[in-house]
Amino acid sequence: MLPISHKTFYHEKLHSQNDDIRNRVLAYCKHIDPNGISVSNVGGWHSKYFKTLPIERPWRKDLIEAVTQSYHLFTAPNQPVPLEFNCWMMVYNQGDYVKDHQHLPIQEELEQYENLHKSGYPVLSGAYYVSLPDGNDKSFYIKDKANNLEYLNTNEGELTLFYSYIMHGTIPNPSDKPRVAIAFNVLPEVHSGRRRSTQTSDSTGGSF
Question: Does 208 fall in a domain?
Answer without folding.
Answer: no
